[in-house]
Amino acid sequence: VILLCVSGMGAETARYSVPEEAERGSFVANIAKDLGLTGEELLARQARVVPEGEKQYLQLNQHTGDLVVREQMDREELCGQSEPCLVRFEVLLESPLQSFRAEVRLTDINDHAPVFLNKEIVLKIPESAMPETRFLLESAYDPDVGNNSLQHYSISSNEYFRVYTQWRNDGRRYAELVLDRALDREQQAEIAFSITALDGGTPPRSGTALIRVEVLDINDNIPVFTRSLYKVSVMENSSQDTLVVVVSASDLDSGTNGEIVYSIVQNSEENFETFKINSETGQIRLKKPLDYEEKKTYEIDVQATDGGGLSTHSKVEVQVKDVNDNAPEVIITSLISTLSEAAPPSTVVALFNVRDRDSGDNGRTTCELTGEQPFRITLLAADAYALVTSETLDREQVEEYNVTVQARDQGSPALSASKTLLVRLLDENDNAPTFTQAIYTMVMSENEPAGRSLGRLSATDPDAGENARVRYALVPPPTGTPAAASFVSVDAESGIVRSLRPLDYEKVPAFEVTVRAADGGSPPLTAQAVLRVTVRDENDNAPVLLHPAPDSGAAGELVPRWAPSGYLVAKVVAVDADAGQNAWLSYELAKATEPALFRVGLHSGEVRTARAVTEKDAARQRLIVLVRDRGQPPRSATATLAVALVDDFSDAFRQLDHDPASGQQPQVAEEEMLTTYLIASLCCVSSLFLLSVLVLTVNALCKARVRAELPPPSPSCFADGDFANDAVSVGGTGTLSPAYRYEMCLTSGSGRSEFQFLRPVL
């Protein structure tokens, strides 16, 4: 970009011309043709005209490339009589940024006629004036230049005078009146004729004035200046009434003819407005301050006239000296007010010119930046600069810069000026979102309804706008892993985590999911965090009995009557599927036949005797053990134990045969039957009773017949080997878990009262 700018700025200046006061819309030139571009390229590159001054006189048609007049231009107003009169401007193109210098020369048209400041010119000429004597006349003023300016003078026909047109050093023309023959006041005291100033335009314009010559009596000595040319220098910052020079003239005559009066011959309106002269002393002073930048040299015609009307002339040349009274001007020709933070170093931000109207060292300038900022200034051409980036930019550190360009001249004292440019940085998506935590831990209650808020995720992005807008989502788990993402959801905008369904702590005590935060950039940048959800256990499970089994009714246990205090009767074993305090179990004796005889371990569940067993204690004891957890509210279960106090094993079998627990089973079952079954049972009572009586009668008859057929009883003893095939194993599911074998002798007629094998308790 810089090379393109340098090539554009360093190229030859394009020059065009247009007549002054051309109508609006007048064609000047085709810029597109001169630049080698088409109208579409001009439009695409946003070509525009940047004037050197503040006023825009020209405009560019981006579609055709035509440069046309925007406002009428008066050459005399813009440049005075300076020639050439140039209107400078630059043509700026973008993408890439290029600048082309051009200038339009305003050609003068003959729009002004010569004008005499005084419509009547009075000359006092003594009658003794010799033929060929020359008299300086007041000059006419024509603001046009070149051929359109004043070219020559002519006078109307008369007998005494002719006129000559003369040239000044600055190119202006003035008139001298030449006497053709001697004057005679007695014959003609006054001579009048007209003078015409004619310019060279087509058609020519003219201005006239009346010359009235008064013939004076003889005054044979004319004033004489000490110098024919006075050269002086005046500083441009001189104030009003500053003395410029003192001219002096003398006259050999005496009396009124020797009295000299000084005056300035008005050869231009500019001199009349700038200088004044003391008619008695010859002091020339300033009417107003001078400006070197407007005009550098003045020529003043001074006339000394004595009392007799004789006059002479002298010239004063005033050179204006430059003073450093103009500060430099910083003129911005192009500015990129918004710049991407991703712009590389040496990116052009602005193009500007520095202009100082002073001359010499006072007009030489340097340019620099104030403060520490990531920019620098590059010189493109004389007084043309580019503001470029010097390093990479970061909007997250500084969003905008106020870049101050300071221009300073080399005058003494030096003057300076500054211009502040506001450069805003456009955001690029160069920062990924950042979670405030790497791991988020949240807690949800077991069986909590869906839709409850568990917490909130938070991620920040230092970018701006859409690049800083963070959206949240769950990362899908890998294939084959548990779908923990189906348990919770994350609100994309707010990051609020909500449950999707109730969870069972016993199945899912905790789970983890990965959460992604993505910004709105293109392409989006992402960050991830771990969401760890812990399920808080609720007391939703009652204790479960392992021993005794809950479906086996009352468990039978045997306790010898000689059991001391602390004798282990049984152990109740239970578990709770909950966790923590909800799974802490305690055991207590809820109900017992003799509560003082037994105690239960609070935490162990062991049922032991609280004291030694005595003969007074009932042979059959029924215990109900309550198992309770510590949840809120607590849940519980009960275990029923049937305890038999026995002296020996045969007694244990008899008591077990008459264990009320065995007879209570139907009763308990009947109590738990539904009402419908009770109604059905009432209908069958009669039939069941009759059937039972019939069965008992048949059974009794069969047994009487068998006894009648048996041989007489004889004692008999069976040895150990006789039970090899017919032995019956006596065992139980209670505390008598191993099998026992008993040896005994029975008579052949022993009956039911002698020995019985009972069914197990369980």
Automatic annotation (TrEMBL):
Keywords tagged on the record: Calcium, Cell adhesion, Cell membrane, Glycoprotein, Membrane, Repeat, Signal, Transmembrane, Transmembrane helix
GO molecular function annotation: calcium ion binding
SUPFAM superfamilies the record matches: Cadherin-like (SSF49313)
GO cellular component, one term: plasma membrane
Predominant cellular place of this UniProt entry's protein: membrane
Subcellular location as annotated: Cell membrane
Chain ranges of the Cadherin domain: 10-116, 117-225, 226-330, 331-435, 436-545, 559-662
Matching InterPro entries: Cadherin-like_dom, Cadherin-like_sf, Cadherin_C, Cadherin_CS, Cadherin_N, Protocadherin/Cadherin-CA
PANTHER family per record: CADHERIN-87A (PTHR24028), PROTOCADHERIN BETA-1 (PTHR24028:SF118)
Role summary: Potential calcium-dependent cell-adhesion protein. May be involved in the establishment and maintenance of specific neuronal connections in the brain.
Name of protein: PCDBG protein
Organism expressing this protein natively: Pomatostomus ruficeps (Chestnut-crowned babbler)
